[in-house]
Specification:
2 copies of one chain form a homodimer. By secondary structure, chain A is of the alpha+beta class. In chain A, 36% of the residues lie in helices and 22% in strands. Chain A has 2 domains: 168 residues, Chloramphenicol acetyltransferase-like domain (Chloramphenicol Acetyltransferase), CATH 3.30.559.10; 236 residues, Chloramphenicol Acetyltransferase. In chain A, helix 6 crosses helix 11 and helix 8 packs across helix 12. The longest helix of chain A has 21 residues. Chains A, B: One of its GO terms (cellular component) is plasma membrane. Chains A, B: It catalyses: an acyl-CoA + a 1,2-diacyl-sn-glycerol = a triacyl-sn-glycerol + CoA. Chains A, B: One of its GO terms (molecular function) is diacylglycerol O-acyltransferase activity.
Chain lengths: 460, 460
Amino acid sequence: MKLLNVVDTSWLFVESRATPMHIGTLSIFALPEGAHDEFVQQTVALLRDTRTFASPWNLKLNDGALVTSIPRWVEDDDIDMDYHFRHSALPKPGGERELGVLVSRLHSHQLDLNRPPWEVHLIEGLAGNRMALYTKMHHSIVDGGSGVRLLSRMYSTDPDARQMLPPWSIPPSREPRKAAARVLSPRALFEMARSGGKSGVALLRALRRWVESTRDEGSNLKVPFTARRSALNSRIKGSARRFATQQYDLGEIKALARAADCTLNDIVLYLCGTALRRFLKESDRLTDAPLTAGIPVDVRPADDEGVGNALSFMIASLGTDIDDPLVRLAAIKASTREGKELLQSLPRSALTPYMMMIMAPYMVQMMTGIGASTRPVFNIIISNVAGPRRPLYFNGARLAALYPVSLLTHGAALNITCLSYADTLNFGFTGCRDSLPHMQRLAVYTGEALAELAAVLRPA
Amino acid sequence: MKLLNVVDTSWLFVESRATPMHIGTLSIFALPEGAHDEFVQQTVALLRDTRTFASPWNLKLNDGALVTSIPRWVEDDDIDMDYHFRHSALPKPGGERELGVLVSRLHSHQLDLNRPPWEVHLIEGLAGNRMALYTKMHHSIVDGGSGVRLLSRMYSTDPDARQMLPPWSIPPSREPRKAAARVLSPRALFEMARSGGKSGVALLRALRRWVESTRDEGSNLKVPFTARRSALNSRIKGSARRFATQQYDLGEIKALARAADCTLNDIVLYLCGTALRRFLKESDRLTDAPLTAGIPVDVRPADDEGVGNALSFMIASLGTDIDDPLVRLAAIKASTREGKELLQSLPRSALTPYMMMIMAPYMVQMMTGIGASTRPVFNIIISNVAGPRRPLYFNGARLAALYPVSLLTHGAALNITCLSYADTLNFGFTGCRDSLPHMQRLAVYTGEALAELAAVLRPA
């Protein structure tokens, strides 16, 4: 038995049918040649029949979704395997479109909080001798970074390794944890807030003042970087989600960053901003002011003596008001440079209060569910999670892509998270079905934005 | 715009994540030979691209799931087709097991009440050159009988008919309605209660007295036919469902009924009772007292002058306390004969009050959600719906089976509904996943019960 801390508990209160608080991953495997059906069947049998559960896969809430008492994790010694592990298939032709549709649907359904809150779906019928694995887990257990680490238990860097087991049956290794993933999940925000040292009640009271100021047009208390409302900041109407993906060659993005004398993250923002500009313009929803993105960043504080980086946060322009590609990129570069300089000028002790100042309204929006009725702090969170660096395998099947599938909150109807893996950068777009019709175009436009930038930077 | 009546509105209040109030059908098609993939693709394209919607497919609630004002149906002129029509596939080998698993899952998810509350899923990958169609619709729009009629709009008795359209695009025909289907849906119960002429409030007050009496062990007010609690009468813990099917040759069942000198319905009860006895005994949950079933029946009232039958209701023993097949069948026969004699002795004017006496506690259990905390009125509802009599086709594909998928309420963790179609009788078993592990065995045992009875009645 383990009590949930304040942060974890908060996900249970925020959970609703329209805003379920689970996150996921989508793994694509290239199967060994000539062994498609056999490999899928063997993997299904392996996953279905492996019924030992390491923490946290065996934990459920004592009280289910009721949250009538103090929530705590208890071990479930009677896990209904066929509920948690599911075997699905794509209709023909089994392409990226059919996969996106299925994952969108699977991600739209709430987890059953009377059980250990996770599901794993093995998906057959993916064209090109491939197979997919979609996992979901409640955010009260994992965030994006730890979710990827949990899943990684099942992989090996050795293509010849066999007798490998599903992730839930493998206890955590003793290896020291790597640096925290740079994912600005709601969970990470609350953790940061908590580390500020204030009590929960006092914190909430302070935060509420910010929210009140954002609602009061005449307030003198200015929330910095207040963004304009956009189509991305609507209330989440229902549970239905859209999910789309885009995979890049990491080397190509790095080359572009060198050519443009900017960071890899600037290129990521450029691709997102360029695609968002085109997407919103098409539906006549582009705002005059540039969209802004909240971005988790590593900074070296001003008083740092080499002990290490700190995770902080900045808000940057996505340049969506600018038509010319190079001018747009320059605006993004300038915006992130200034943001980072400001962060680096702060002593370590000031980083958390600074973060809180920016993030407070956003957090209260989530906690109270009033999101989308206040002005947004920023228009979208774009996270860049550092994933596994070496190519991974599962019983000889090569992990070809690893996409993050994220959660939405009221006022944040689109999430873009990138996950680096080996020599690829994997974008996952998670959006509200009602607010963002044709969202899959965003992924397409992001891809085309790269080609356009390459042509502009390196004219033939 | 159309106001919902009291009955329809009640489904919105009863709706919860654990007890979603939608019902469904599962149609199995035998495809034209040599045209599997092509036929499936053409049907998907046809369904996806037919975007005209006849009533009630185009109706949604004015207020979604909130029910803050008086609910009414409004026409939705911006229907998100890709939400309502879905193309799914079965994993290999694509047998009845894989189909049952998928339909169980699809039936477990709540409908989005912000949209017209229906979904249609075309399922490919079914072995034996077949295809399946699963439909779901909210009970505030249809009951079992009208749901089958709605779906039937898409079929023809002509195997050569082509250019056929999906059910949602076909307006209701002008044909007079056939006799009401004999399905004892909650909806039908409320309709009957309403036709009793009492106002809603007075009715509810009267009903509540019955419920109080069932809770008070010392009460002198006896609810007739009060059943023992059984595994079938537990509270519904979560939304997860199990679904299983069994198809019989209608001629074979009729022959058995003739051989045993009983009704077709007696054979249905025998098959259910025999399977339930074996199923509950295996898990050591068989009660000493026989399980009882609530059964909708057509009766000719005592004062009827040939104007027609009336829909009424009786409670019968399922003989689950009896080991010998023929003695068990005899007990069921005696039970239904006496029940029917009692009903037939009543004048037409007394039928509804009599029904109310039996059904009141059940209805209040549903309305108030206190089901499973009172003694059950009966252990299970077994309905027998009269479906289409002639073989049906859709663009040349033969409808081979048509199964009902039903809803559960607290205290009613298993539903068995049979639907006759052409020369078949199609059983749909819908159960609570948590209360009824291995529920698919029930369907298997029901099949084996037929063979056993045939052997006993017609020894070789």
